[in-house]
Design a protein that fits this description.
The complex is a heterodimer of chains A (about 260) and B (about 250).
Chain A: H1 4-33, H2 39-43, H3 46-78, H4 83-97, H5 100-111, H6 118-125, H7 133-157, H8 162-169, H9 174-185, H10 187-203, H11 206-212, H12 222-232, H13 234-256
Helix pairs in contact in A: 1-13, 3-7, 3-10, 3-12, 4-7, 5-11, 7-10, 7-11, 8-9, 10-13, 12-13
Chain B: H1 3-22, E1 27-34, H2 38-51, E2 55-62, H3 64-72, E3 79-81, H4 85-93, E4 97-107, E5 109-113, E6 134-137, H5 142-154, E7 163-164, H6 167-175, E8 181-185, E9 197-200, E10 209-216, H7 222-233, H8 235-243, E11 247-248
Parallel strand pairs in B: 1-2, 1-3, 6-7, 6-8
Antiparallel strand pairs in B: 3-10, 4-10, 4-11, 5-8, 5-9
The chains are: A mainly alpha (about 260), B alpha/beta (about 250).
Chain lengths: ~260, ~250
């Protein structure tokens, strides 16, 4: 046995090295092929600016939806256990594991002009969502908010109810208890959820292209611009890819940061 | 897994290997073709394999720019069929082709509309009607470039609601009723009777899309690829192309 142990350690180290390489090498390819001299000029071009603005608007919208609609939903999901809650939870979590293209098709069939909800929107309000900036925002929220609900519910379930009881005994009403006792105490979960939601919304590609189309200045977000650039300006695609990779790495760093998320 | 089950599985594997060894392995060639050629090349390849049972074609369809990039990155398909000459020229410039590319078919443009043409769109100028949702392919895709050329010839300004990544995506969105119209190839209505209607673009505004084909150097299965290219130019091959709506070269 003693002679086998070093060999096992070597095999393990090799496997770990290969695994690390699998994730590090593609990024290295991106960094080495990047047109660094062009970096500033390309990033300041109006097309890239439009794509960045749309990406920021849609991903921020997703975070706002997460807090306004996702937080109450997470509170309800965490407040007990029932068959209805389980079904709703599965529905809400589905976009996390669903192939994004399926999400896009589903959004189009639901909110498109002839969709289940969309035809009603068209007949009653003369509103048509596909190929509009609001459609980009809806796709971003659809894909991002589930991450927030997941984290918020986990935070709420681990929350010690005695703090709420103590606040109630001191005369705090339900709203006051929730916003001034519960929310500050589960802030790390909410922050982590918001970051994941934002990052997923920022990277959203497939559902956006399917549901919102791909038009510069109106629905072309950073990932869509990256995909279009890959067809005729590979240098720009690499550059946009690097920006998205850097933002994603930044989110991971923030998630690890103790100030935001206590381990 | 029980030992008996395991041995059964092993036997099956061995038997499978044995059977394969009896028949000679087919000679394989890889074919890269533009997405708009998907249906017709699948049919061409089936006819070719029937004529040459000892061969097998691995068909690979994608947008022409993506395929060009893969060849530039070192992929060597035995046959490369491009949706336009501009993209093929990039491979000519890269000196990776065997001989000069040859035009094997051509195509024209059409306006794809809802079945029965409820918005009564009959010419390119009708696409500028306010309230219509019209989309084109992106200008980086051959179909999108041709569409813009045709609109330029007709002097029509269309506000596209989306630059779709390929003609198939565009046709699907018209089929679903999310778009009222788009500009695609004449061949894109093939097999979609009743789901969409195609209106040919007038000859004076039409753009002739030419499809070049060539082999790449040092390709695996180059001889099979060369035979396939010959087959595409043969009367049988040209008939298949015409049956899908392509014009003969």
């Amino acid at each position: 046995m003693t002679t086998r142990r070093p060999r096992a350690a070597i095999v393990g180290a090799l496997a770990a090295t290969f695994a690390a390489g699998l994730f590090a090498l593609p990024l290295l390819g991106l960094v080495l092929r990047a047109p660094w001299r062009e970096f500033g000029r390309q990033l300041l071009s109006p097309a890239v600016g439009d794509a960045m603005r749309l990406s920021l608007v849609s991903s921020t919208f997703a975070v706002v939806v997460a807090f306004v609609l996702g937080l109450p939903l997470a509170a309800w999901l965490a407040s007990g256990s029932s068959a209805v809650r389980s079904v709703v939870r599965i529905l809400v979590m589905l976009p996390i594991v669903l192939p994004p293209i399926v999400g896009g098709i589903a959004l189009l069939l639901a909110f498109g002009r002839n969709g289940v909800v969309g035809s009603w929107l068209r007949d009653w309000f003369d509103v048509s969502l596909p190929f509009t900036t609001p459609a980009v925002c809806i796709a971003a929220a659809y894909m991002g908010v589930p991450f927030f609900v997941l984290c918020a519910e986990a935070g709420l379930r681990n929350f010690d109810r005695r703090f709420v009881q103590a606040a109630a005994s001191l005369g705090a009403g339900p709203a006051r208890r929730f916003f001034f006792v519960v929310v500050p105490m589960i802030a790390p979960s909410l922050t982590a959820g918001a970051l994941l939601c934002w990052a997923r919304a920022l990277g959203e590609f497939c559902a956006t292209q399917m549901f919102a189309g791909n038009l510069a200045g109106r629905t072309r977000t950073m990932p869509l611009a990256c995909s279009v650039a890959m067809e005729n300006e590979p240098d720009l695609a690499v550059l946009l890819g690097l920006v998205l990779a850097a933002v994603s790495a930044g989110v991971l760093l923030l998630l690890r940061h103790r100030v935001l998320v206590r381990p | 897994m029980s030992p008996r089950l395991l041995s059964c599985a092993l036997l099956a594997v061995i038997a499978g290997c044995g059977r394969e060894a009896v028949a000679p392995a087919p000679r394989v060639a890889r074919v890269f073709a533009a997405a708009s050629l998907t249906a017709v090349f699948t049919s061409l390849a089936a006819a070719f394999e029937k004529e040459h049972p000892d061969t097998k074609l691995d068909l690979h369809f994608a947008g022409t720019p993506s395929l060009v990039m893969q060849v530039q990155q070192g992929e060597r398909p035995a046959v490369f069929a491009s949706a336009d000459e501009a993209n093929m020229q990039k491979l000519v410039d890269a000196r990776v082709l065997v001989g000069d590319p040859r035009i094997f078919a051509s195509n024209g443009l059409a306006i794809v509309v809802r079945p029965g043409n409820p918005a009564s769109i009959h010419r390119l100028a009708d696409l500028a009607t306010p309230g219509l949702k019209v989309a084109l392919c992106g200008p980086e895709v051959p179909a999108g470039r041709y569409a813009r050329q045709a609109l330029g010839k007709a002097g029509v300004a269309v506000s596209s609601v989306s630059d779709e990544p390929n003609v198939k995506a565009l046709v699907t969105k018209v089929q679903l009723g999310e778009l009222d119209a788009g500009i695609v190839y004449r061949t894109d209505g093939h097999g979609l009777d009743g789901k969409v209607t195609l209106v040919d673009v007038a000859p004076e505004h039409d753009v002739v899309a030419k499809y070049p084909i060539a082999g790449t150097i040092d390709a695996y299965g180059a001889d099979v690829g060369a035979r396939f290219v010959q087959f595409v130019f043969s009367p049988v091959g040209q008939n298949i192309l015409q049956s899908f709506g392509f014009r003969a070269r």
